[in-house]
Write a structure and sequence with these properties.
Number of helices: 16
Largest sheet: 6 strands, antiparallel
Strand order of the largest sheet: 5-6-2-1-10-9
Helix content: 40-55%
Structural class: alpha+beta
Number of strands: 12
Radius of gyration: 32 Å
Distance between the termini: 102 Å
Order of helices and strands: HHHHHHHHHHHEEEEEEEEEEHHHHEEH
Length: 507
């Protein structure tokens, strides 16, 4: 049967692969044995580098071999440094002897060492473009080299992102090298825009964009990720991406970030609740503050001021701290609290036995008419899409977020209905939607509590039937009484928030 390609039988193919695998394992073990033996002997030479390359070109993810290469490079750097010191002495000797040719300068040899490492990583990245070890070794090599060509690395990123624009390893490396190359943030933003136009489904590019915008278009009030004008433009762009493919999650995730209030990171710990009386004081933070004991807490009244010391954590997350020593509180005086960059004016309790401070989570923030119109337009677009695709989970969730961004109080019930619907259409994330509903419920109840005649002494949770958790528990530290269902109390157990009334003076 001339001219026909012989096709191996399944058994023959299996046997062939088995033999190939056995040969590879034997070669790998032999090379690794030789490498480890040389390492034990301290032989960090060119042969060692050659042996590691043999394995890394086939498998770039052997961490030990990259560590050994770094040891070899550091040894070469040391040798070249010593050689440079010697060359300074020998220059005079060569000059006196009339020698015309000079050996290669140590600096040239050093650049050759760095260049070799960069070449090795490039070859390994061709085998596996998502090799953590190869990218890490490239970063390490560049940081060692004071003459690193950072612009070349930027161009290399451009090259790799043409092959795969969603490779988050390349995007991480790009952030590293563009910072070193001092690439303008505006230029990077334009690059992101081009990549998103090529492929909307690009988490890495959307993420890269989210890191650039707060710097380029800062929001002075810090209640939005960026300035309102730019935020409006971003919402328009991301809506186009989201509706191009409603089932792709990347644009929807970015839109959720855009809708988030207070997205900028607070540099200092933010106080959300404080109460003091003659029995002591309690303070609560928006986020865990594990180093609170090291901060200076100053209480002032008129021209007098004194420090509150000896704080103890009141919960395991360290969002709430208690001060259990007596305070000489005078009801006819006004008080303020100073902590880090914050100075907080305290309000007197109606009962005259203390003072307090409280700000509900996600308190209402300002919104221009233009931005509000854009949010309402996007919400209507989501409603229109839901008429055709009622089970679109991303549209359901985004519409709920839009409603809360427009008016969280007025749209509270309807946004919760969307979460209930999401539990049905996306049952795998049912727990997430329940937690989100609990957060929204507590935000709503805490905002109501702040205007209640019983505030801040008594907190009553009226909408508690579906709750199995109590987010924002630190906000309740200023209350004397918590009226919760027995079911919720049992569910919380020892995680039930400690109230101000439970403070006890030290003996």
């Amino acid at each position: 049967m001339h001219g026909r390609v012989k096709v191996r039988t399944t058994e023959e193919e299996r046997e062939r692969k088995k033999k190939e695998h056995a040969l590879k394992v034997r070669a790998y073990r032999a090379a690794m044995g030789r490498i480890l033996k040389k390492r034990d002997a301290g032989e960090l030479d060119d042969e060692m580098l050659g042996l590691t390359v043999q394995i890394l070109h086939r498998n770039p993810d052997v961490t030990t071999l990259w560590n050994i290469r770094r040891e070899c490079v550091l040894e070469k750097i040391k040798q070249l440094s010593d050689a440079e010191a010697e060359s300074k002495k020998s220059d005079e000797v060569r000059a006196e002897a009339g020698a015309e040719e000079k050996p290669a300068a140590p600096e040239d040899k050093l650049q050759s060492v760095y260049g070799q490492e960069l070449n090795v990583t490039e070859q390994c990245l061709m085998v596996n473009p998502k090799s953590y070890n190869a990218w890490h070794h490239r970063c390490w090599t560049l940081e060692q080299n004071p003459q690193a060509d950072w612009q070349r690395e930027v161009q290399l990123c451009n090259k790799y992102l043409k092959y795969d624009e969603r490779n988050f390893h390349t995007w991480d490396f790009r952030r590293f090298v563009t910072a070193k190359a001092a690439v303008p943030a505006e230029q990077e933003l334009d690059f992101c825009t081009e990549k998103i136009k090529v492929n909307f489904s690009n988490y890495s590019s959307w993420h890269h964009r989210s890191l650039l915008l707060p710097t380029l278009y800062p929001n002075e009030q810090r209640d939005r990720p960026m300035s309102e004008e730019k935020l409006q433009q971003e919402l328009e762009m991301v809506l186009t991406a989201a509706f191009t493919d409603p089932n792709d999650s990347s644009a929807w995730f970015y839109q959720r970030w855009l809708l988030g209030g207070g997205a900028q990171v607070d540099q200092a710990p933010k106080v959300v609740a404080f109460r003091m009386g003659v029995t002591g004081a309690v303070i609560a933070f928006k986020k865990p503050c594990p180093d609170f004991e090291q901060l200076k807490v100053e209480l002032s009244s008129n021209e007098d001021s004194w420090q509150l010391q000896s704080w103890q954590p009141a919960d395991s997350r360290r969002t709430t701290w208690k001060h259990q020593t007596p305070i000489d509180y005078q009801k006819d005086r006004s008080y303020s609290l100073k902590l880090s960059e914050q100075e907080i004016k305290l309000l007197p309790l109606s009962t005259g036995d203390g003072a307090f401070f409280f700000v509900p989570p996600h308190a209402a923030y300002s919104c221009s008419k233009e931005l509000l119109d854009e949010l309402q337009t996007q919400l209507q677009s989501c409603f229109d899409l839901l008429e055709y695709e009622p089970d679109s989970k991303w549209t359901l969730l985004t519409s709920a977020l839009l409603m809360r961004a427009i008016d969280a109080t007025a749209n509270h019930e309807r946004s919760l209905e969307h979460l209930v619907e999401l539990e049905k259409v996306d049952a795998l994330r049912k727990g997430y939607y329940k937690d989100l509903a609990a957060c929204w419920t507590l935000e709503f109840e805490l905002a109501k509590w702040a205007t209640s005649p019983k505030f801040p002494k008594r907190f009553e949770l009226t909408a508690e039937s579906a709750l199995t958790s109590l987010p924002y528990g630190q906000y309740l530290a200023i209350a004397d009484e918590l009226e919760l269902s027995e079911k919720l109390k049992e569910e919380l157990g020892d995680r039930l928030p400690q109230t101000f009334a439970e403070l006890k003076l030290q003996k």
